[in-house]
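Key result, reporting period 2: structure in, sequence out.
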């Protein structure tokens, strides 16, 4: 598969603090990558470094073979980096429809396509951003990112705080994006759902990749899950007891 994103020996952080340390990874076109790790290991910082929101000490980020390391966030978005922040970043004083169209860029993802994926957003089109439930906000954040027609979508804990039925719906929508050729990088605490969705997973610890495996393999690797995440039971099928 053709390479889309390449991160090479990246060290990045905030002020004088190096959070990401000498980290390298690559992502193929339409590939989905899970980024796992305990709290505070640098998952958000990695995503923010791809978006261009951190201080870069060393290393490069390339998209489609072009070095975007020195580009500001707006230019990275124009180059094809889509971002759904952990805070969701909904414009609260705009309607749902205005949220979707305010920053849209031309491409296959239009308002109709987003409404098809999330019919709830069509129903709520005239509501203000601050009148939405958590699940609706997350759908809106994803829909708005898609309206920028990215080649890779970065999602930072998209299911945080949502009810299981909404989590299932969101993962189904993300699965649909994948099928349609959008590459995904998903930071998640719900290891089970994200390992079903993704092709490959990396586990971070103290700003470095400490484990990397195909998602289908990691899902059953209770030793690795316990060692790096302490969550082996969380990725077993529902209803199954941990060994
Ligand atoms: N804006 C910031 N300024 C300074 N330090 C920060 C900032 N954001 C994060 N950090 C520090 O960077 C380190 C990594 O945080 P980060 O949020 O990237 O981890 P995480 O793996 O995403 O954690 P969580 O799962 O809790 O979201 C932490 O020590 C944190 O205190």
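The corresponding designed sequence is given below.
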């Amino acid at each position: 598969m053709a390479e889309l994103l390449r991160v090479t020996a990246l060290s990045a952080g905030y002020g004088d603090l190096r959070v990401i340390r000498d980290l390298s990874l690559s992502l193929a076109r339409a590939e989905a990558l899970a980024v796992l790790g305990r709290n505070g290991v640098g998952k958000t910082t990695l995503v923010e470094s791809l978006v261009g929101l951190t201080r870069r000490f060393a290393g490069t980020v390339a998209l489609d073979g072009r070095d975007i390391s020195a580009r500001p966030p707006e230019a990275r978005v124009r180059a094809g980096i889509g971002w759904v922040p952990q805070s969701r970043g909904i414009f609260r004083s705009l309607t749902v429809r205005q949220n979707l169209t305010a920053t849209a860029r031309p491409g296959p993802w239009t308002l109709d396509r987003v409404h098809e994926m999330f019919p709830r957003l069509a129903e709520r089109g005239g509501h203000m951003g601050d009148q939405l439930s958590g699940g609706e906000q997350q759908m809106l954040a994803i829909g708005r990112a898609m309206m920028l027609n990215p080649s890779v979508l970065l999602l930072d804990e998209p299911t945080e705080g949502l009810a299981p039925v909404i989590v299932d719906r969101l993962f189904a929508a993300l699965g649909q994006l994948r099928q349609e050729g959008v590459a995904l990088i998903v930071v998640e605490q719900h290891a089970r759902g994200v390992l079903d969705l993704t092709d490959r997973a990396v586990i971070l610890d103290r700003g470095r990749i400490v484990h990397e495996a195909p998602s289908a393999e990691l899902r059953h690797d209770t030793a690795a899950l316990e060692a790096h995440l302490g969550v082996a039971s969380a990725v077993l099928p529902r209803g199954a007891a941990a060994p």
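The first strand starts at residue 3 and ends at 14. Residues 14, 17, 19, 37, 39-45 surround adenosine-5'-triphosphate (CB under 6 Å). This case is discussed further under Risks and Mitigation.
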